[in-house]
Known about the structure:
- 89% of the residues lie in helices and 0% in strands.
- The longest helix is centred in the C-terminal third of the chain and has 39 residues.
- The protein is mostly helical.
Amino acid sequence: MQLSSSVRILFALAMALSLSACNSKSSQCSRLSSAINKIQPIAQQFQQESKNFETAAKAAGAKNDLKAFKAAATSSAQEFNTLTEKMDELIQEIQALNLKDETLIGLQGQYVENAKATNSTFREISSALTTIGESNNSAEGLKSSQQAVTTVTQTTKKLSTLVQEEGKMVTDFKSYCEGKK
């Protein structure tokens, strides 16, 4: 009976230590980092699709091929829509992390807001590309296409600001999580 009591105490102690390890700063940093790092491949896909559109648009422009330009815009818009859906899933995953550390909760909130703003910007670009792809060859169609191009230019500037904000968050995260634990 005495051995059984000792085993129970050791088991309870081991469980308590493992539960506290799950909520340690290091563990929480790791969980948040893992979730955030899943965004990187999607961001790379956005960049690649942007390059693909730019290449196709230049080629269509060189040939004065409006149909090819519209097709490239439509294709890129569809790809952006798929990527924004993936990004939505990752944002939900980051939001769902149950963190206890107040600093990490703050960083988590900042990442979520930045990711939402970035995703919203990608949606604006997708919508503009859809407008370009669907525009007709009338004066009205030309006007809506020109407005869409302006939207793409403006949202690209927003993206640049969001990327800079994310860089600061990464620095803050690394400073906090790689500092003394």
